[in-house]
Amino acid sequence: MTLVGRPNAGKSTLLNALIGEHLSIVTPKAQTTWQRVTGILTVEADQLIFLDTPGLLEARDLMQRAMLGAALEALAEADIVLLVVDTTRSPSTKDGARILAALDQARAPQRVALNKVDIASEPSIHAWEDWVDTHLGCPRFRISAEVGTGVDDLLAALRVDLPPGPFLYPEDEIASDPVRFFVAELVRETIFEQFQQEIPYSVFCQVEEYREAQDPVYIQMNIYFERDSQKGMLIGKKGAAIRALGEASRAKIEHFLGRSVYLDLWVKPLKAWRKNRAHLSQLGFRLPAEDETEKR
Ligand SMILES: Nc1nc2c(ncn2[C@@H]2O[C@H](COP(=O)(O)OP(=O)(O)OP(=O)(O)O)[C@@H](O)[C@H]2O)c(=O)[nH]1
Ligand SMILES: [Mg+2]
After folding, report:
1. CA 215 vs CA 24, 186, 219: distances in Å
2. What ligand 1 atom has the least distance to the C-alpha of 34?
3. What angle (nearest 5°) sits at the alpha carbon of residue 160, between those of residues 155 and 161?
4. Which of 13, 61, 108, 241 could be joined to 145 by an S-S link, Cβ 3.0–4.6 Å?
5. Residue 54 CA to ligand 2 centre (angstroms)
């Protein structure tokens, strides 16, 4: 089951609400999710596998093309597509067209989560209901992923829709990505929270060393930045920024792992990594085929 939608619609918040854990990072800034995140929920005889995806955006650089590619690939694999929309925004022609173009690539049945109804106005929610009825004609659900309203009803409906099949994961498993991925994501989430402007989008976190036989768990993480000017911002005056980042990230990682952690952050240059094929694939992105715009 693939969750898709525009950036900031609340896909990751919804994934977490469905699974009941903080699995996929959430921030108020758009383009928080960069790679797909799998969440697994087993209830009685049903096992639901949810794929959270990067927002459907207009890809401007290679990194955004990789993000969009990840979303479209997850869409193509879906047995059910769950479109998540932010009902506080109006269903503009442009947003609508982008969503419809993406959904066109999926064969699977569609459902729509009309999200953020806790803060949206009734006319705005109505406008989205009309939009769904006109363009998709599929079941739709008013929810608030953040507050939890309607999430149980949505889940119950998804369970009814679920095609039968064997469990692909053990019953108590909630994720399929490696622990290292989540650890790096938690640092990235903290960067989104603590830094402004381009920094969150210019920084990539990667676990370099993970020694869990040790107590506390030793984690060395590389924080790659794109341009020299960003190093100073990341480190801050007398190291204040990197220290604050380390402290808040460590607390999150300790909560996630249920163990104490020694977090060693290394700030390193990786010039223009967002535009560089070799860097992006080393960082774990699957890249779209080369196109003309890259050669310019
Ligand atoms: N009030 C309210 N806020 C919400 C709701 N769902 C999500 N949010 C907020 O909306 C913002 C974006 O949420 P995310 O879950 O990160 O959105 P996303 O669709 O995963 O965004 P990208 O990963 O950037 O594509 C966060 O600040 C959330 O707290 C909701 O139901 N109500
Ligand atoms: Mg997200």
Report:
1. 26, 20, 11
2. 23
3. 95
4. 13
5. 6
Distances in whole angstroms, Cα of residue 171 to Cα of each of 42, 110, 160, 254: 6, 26, 19, 24
Give the tokens for residue 185: 């994501």
pLDDT tens by residue, 148-200: 999 999 999 999 999 989 999 999 999 999 999 999 999 999 999 999 999 99
Kindly list the protein residues whose Cβ atom lies closer than 6 A to any atom of ligand 1: 5, 7-13, 26-28, 30-33, 54-55, 115-116, 118-119, 144-146
Q: Which of 175, 157, 207, 200 is nearest to 22 (CA)?
A: 175
Whether CATH 3.40.50.300 fits 2-161? yes
CATH number for the region 179-295 comes to 3.30.300.20
| 3-state DSSP assignment of residue 158 | helix
Q: Which ligand does the CA of 11 lie closest to?
A: 1
- Alpha-carbon distance of 249 to 261, in angstroms, equals 10
CA of 215 to the centre of ligand 2 (A): 32
268 C-alpha to ligand 1 centroid (Å): 30
Place of tokens 């969503």: 99
